[in-house]
Every structure is written in structure tokens, then in C-alpha cells.
Amino acid sequence: MTDPLIPAVLAFRDNGTPFSPLYNDIYHSAVGGLEQAHYVFLRGNSLPERWQGRRTFTVLETGFGMGINFLVTWAAWRADPSRCERLHFVSTERHPFTLDDLRSVYAATLSDPGIADLAQTLADAWPMLVPGTHRIEFEDGRVVLTLVLGDAAESLPALRLCADAFYLDGFAPARNPELWTPSIFKALARLAGEGATFATYSSAGDIKRALTQNGFEYRKVDGFGWKRAMLVGHFAPRWRVRRYEPPAPLAVEERHAVVIGAGLAGCAVIERLAARGWRVTSLERHGAVAQDASGNPAGVFHPMISRDDSVASRVTRAGFLYALRRWGELERAGHRLLRGGQGLLQIAADDDEARAISEAIAAFGYPADYVTPVSADDARRLAGTPLTRGGWLFPRGGWIDPASLCAAQFAAAGNRLERRFGVEVARLERFGDQWTVFDTAGNPVVRAPVVIVASAHDAARIAGLQHAPTRSIRGQLTLLPSGTVPSLALPVIGEGYAVPLANGVTLTGATYELDDLDASLRADGHRENLARVAHMLPAFEGAIDPAQAAALAGRVAFRCVTSDRMPMIGQLADEARAAQDAQRLRGAWPLDLPRMDGVYGAFAYGSRGLVWAALGAELIASQIEGEPWPLERDLAEDIDPARFLLRALRQGAVS
């Protein structure tokens, strides 16, 4: 179970130096934080020289603190005309500052106007203080901060990246020994790229031994300010120190990808690849984007709260927060998204659930801008109509028109995107280092080194997967005309949902019918939707005569789900090669499995496409580019399309 975050306590020494009462140590030298960052970490890692001319460069820091090292590194990148194309800065922090304290410490300590401006930009993008990985982009995505909030002893082993430079920061080993243990250095060795460098203000003997034992060579140099010595060095193992190599970019002659499917999953992938400079060919069987489940008039988005902070809750939390950032960037770029005002109410199924979830919210220490429990009276005031019981409010949740999101992502790709509609894809075939996509008539459609299959129910068939158990869930929506039911101030979800649309219509739904392929509207589906909503909203009871249900408007769509209800996101397994080596792979882990070079999946999003699509797209783009993953490795493995093959191998069911 995830531990709750405990924010840092802001304090200052008499000389004005920021100080941590928890660790009884200062955040930076009294000589100067900016100067320390330049001397110890940039100069100690030979930056900016080492990133010059590189496509990407990744810095991994232990202990974000005030973010001074990030700000100074960002400023140096900005000032360097030979800078790398994309700078990734990954940092862990167990006790992050609250936004108010972050602004206060910057106002009190930053005198450099350029750094102060960057600090203001960082503060404006500061994440909600909830555990997990937060990806924040600056400079149109060319500077990416991946901030991992939680205990470094747990988060560092869960990272998947290839570090070019390490900033070994944090409080002094005597004050914060947990950040300087042998297991920490072992985790760093697993992440070190070839020739990776490191720098640290410390020169303690235990740190020297831990570095040497994990493949790092060090040398002592003059320390900063009043400190006599510090350590710098590089990764140069004399023996094997890790089982898996860090991720590397996919080797391709041309950065061209085919994305099959133009719903929420496919459009998100298109936008993320185009933002990195890829040329993308979109293949869609319909005549426009968002025509299947993504074509519903609205969808709700919100996190998921569970008593044990389950895998689904953690993945959904990361996806929800990342989606909000991506949507905001699209809107700032001038793309119009049709969505309602902020706020969504989830109503508990019964009093026991209301009590249990309220206790979970308190136990995890979630901030009020993420989720807050509400009584039945509070819920009534928020919704503008009586509710049967209380629940919890997601202040940043709400509803959005999925088609408007897909259209914005298409538009954001600009001239990097080739749009091809009316193409029914049948299969893929490898020729040399390229994949050829064939249509159902057997004709080759397009060739590219990378293919992303984002076509929901058809994805497993197109990719030729046998171990991808997906099923279809029929979902019928009901549209209630303006004036027929009380208007709601915000969406209400629970056993069903009721969403107030912009035109006064209320959207309710949705039915959940397994393997029912009937696409026609059914009166009993409308009645079912109305009955479920009435259990939450008593004023809806009797608002529509059940005998008139057949006359109501609505829509039928089919959700694609897996047996474990988690999505399929990532590089696809090469099932044929795995079958040939089934005996050896019976005890395999995900990174052991053979993969289809250049083929990735983004499907089986069920009813959570809005919160999973953007994060899934960023994960796939990061895998292709060899960039730091935006999600902890264990969570990525829980949504890995190869997980079902892995289970079959372990059960001896593959031959």
C-alpha cells in the first residue's frame, strides 16, 4: 500500500538559508544555492558540454528539494546554443514542498531574475501532492521534468530510464542515511547509461565504497564553499552489475510510424509522436476520427480511489493527472476542447462504502484539490439537487467531448500527420526492417519501421496475437431532453452517471452487457439507465414515463476490455519466438520476453480511455525513443500487452 506523502516544513536558519527541521540540515550551502548547483552538479558532470549535439540527455537526481538543481540545469540548457534536443530531468522527493511554501522559499532566496522566472514557471506547474510519477513539460516539451513523489528506496528501483548524469543530492548522509545506502547505489547502477557521470558534494568513506561496489569510479576534487572535498566520477563496471540493460531508442532509418485506429488511444499516440518530430500515417476504417466508443457525446474523467491504493488506482491517478496537463497544453496552443466546468461527484453505493472511502482518503493524506469526502447535504449543494447519500468530490474531474479531443490531437500533429480514412486493416508483415500494413483485400497500404495498433477489438487480430484476451462490452447511453429532469451543476456518477451537457441535455448511462453485439437502441436499456440514475438522484424518479423510453435518443458503443480490466499498452511480444523458447521462458520476467521490433499496442481501454490514453501514448513514445518512462516499471508491467503471454508461459501453457 502506498504511504501518504508528508510535505516538507519550510524553515530558515538565522542567515536566511532554507532549512529542514525533519532532517536538521540545510537545503543548500549558505554560500549560495545557485552557485552550489553550478559548481557541484553541472561542472561536476561536465555540463553543458556533454549534452551538446545529443538528441536526448537524461539527468537523474536523488532529492529534488527546492528544485534549485533543476532550475540551474534548465537555465544552462536554455543558454546553450548547442544544447540537446530534449533534456530529461528525473528526480525523487519524499517530502515535497506545498505550492505556497515553494513560492515562499523562491521569493526569499532567488535573486537571479532569470532563475526566478523559471522558478515561477515551475511553481505554476507544480503537481498535486499525491504519490507517484508526475511528468511536467516545459519549452514545448523540450525540457521534461519527471518528478517521482515517494520514498527513493522504493521509487528508484521502479524507474526505467538510461541516465547520462547523476546528481547525488539530498541531505547529508549523517542526516538522511536512507538516501545513501548500498541498495540506492545498486539501483543507480541499473539505470546508468554507458559513460554516465556523477557528482556529489559528499566524500564520505561509505559512499566511496558503495560507488566502487556498484561499478562507479570516483575521484576527489575540491569541494564547494567551505567544504574541503567532493566526489565526481563515472560508471565503468569491471564486472556485470545488472541483469537488464537500460532502455535504448529504437534503431530506425526514418522516424515514420503507422498508427492504426483514430479513436482516443490512436489520436493520443499520434500527438505524442508528432510532438517528438515523427512523421505519422493514420489509418482509420471509418470516414472520420472518434467514430466508435470515442464518438460518444461526452465521457467523464476522474481518478479512482480504493482502500488499498490498488494498481488500477495508481495507474488511473497517473493517467488522470497527465491527461489534465496534456489537455491544458492543447488549449494553450489554441485547440478547442469541448468540456464542462471543473468538478465531478461520485456517490457511494452505500453507507459502508462512503465510510470506507472517506477513511482511505484520510489515511492516504490526499489533498483537497485531488479528492475530498462530502456528506449528502454537501453533495446536494454541489449538484443543485438532492442525492441519496454522500460520497466524494473530484474538483478537477468532469466531462469532455472525446471527439473534440481527438480532433485537437489530430490538428496538433499538423503536417507531420498523413490522414487516411476508409482503410480496413487486416494484418502486418515484416520485410527487412520495415512493417507492411495490408488491407482486407490483401493490398499493401503503407510501410514503416514502427506500427502502433490502437484499434480496440481488432488490435489482437491485426497484430496476430493469441495471448490477448479481450471482450466486448455493449454500452447504451440515454439522452434526456432539456427540461425533462432537474439540471445538474456538475456530473454525478455512482451506480450509473448523469452528465449535464452544454445544450441542456442530460446524458445518462451506460449499460454494461458482455458480448452483446446488438448496435440498435433498446427501450429496456433506456429504462435501465434511468433506474440506476434515480437510485442516486431521487428527483429523476418518474421524470420520464417508462412507457415513453423507446422514444428517447441515445447511442450504442462497444468497449474493449481485458479479463483483468487493465489496458494493453506497450511493445507487443513476439509470441512465435516465445513459443520456440517456452521452456527457458517459463520463469521469465517481462523484460526477458522477445518483442516484435517496432510494434506496439494501445487498446482495451474499456470505459477509462479518457484517463489512460494520454499516459499510454507517452509511455509508448518513451519506449520508442528510449526516454525515461512516465510510469513506474511495476505499473507498466501491469498494463504490458505481454502479461497474458507471461502468465501462460509460467503455467506451461505455451508450446
TrEMBL record:
The enzyme's E.C. designation: 2.1.1.61, 1.5.-.-
Catalysed reaction, written as an equation: 5-aminomethyl-2-thiouridine(34) in tRNA + S-adenosyl-L-methionine = 5-methylaminomethyl-2-thiouridine(34) in tRNA + S-adenosyl-L-homocysteine + H(+)
Domain MnmC-like methyltransferase span(s) in chain numbering: 115-234
Stretch list, region FAD-dependent cmnm(5)s(2)U34 oxidoreductase: 260-655
Disulfide bond recorded as keyword: no
Cross-referenced InterPro entries: FAD-dep_OxRdtase, FAD/NAD-bd_sf, MnmC-like_methylTransf, SAM-dependent_MTases_sf, tRNA_MAMT_biosynth_bifunc_MnmC, tRNA_MNMC2, tRNA_S-uridine_synth_MnmC_C
Record domain FAD dependent oxidoreductase: where: 257-622
Needed cofactors: FAD
Cell location: Cytoplasm
Keyword Chloroplast belongs to the record: no
Keywords: Cytoplasm, FAD, Flavoprotein, Methyltransferase, Multifunctional enzyme, Oxidoreductase, S-adenosyl-L-methionine, Transferase, tRNA processing
Region tRNA (mnm(5)s(2)U34)-methyltransferase, residue ranges: 1-236
Role summary: Catalyzes the last two steps in the biosynthesis of 5-methylaminomethyl-2-thiouridine (mnm(5)s(2)U) at the wobble position (U34) in tRNA. Catalyzes the FAD-dependent demodification of cmnm(5)s(2)U34 to nm(5)s(2)U34, followed by the transfer of a methyl group from S-adenosyl-L-methionine to nm(5)s(2)U34, to form mnm(5)s(2)U34.
Protein name: tRNA 5-methylaminomethyl-2-thiouridine biosynthesis bifunctional protein MnmC
Species of provenance: Paraburkholderia metrosideri
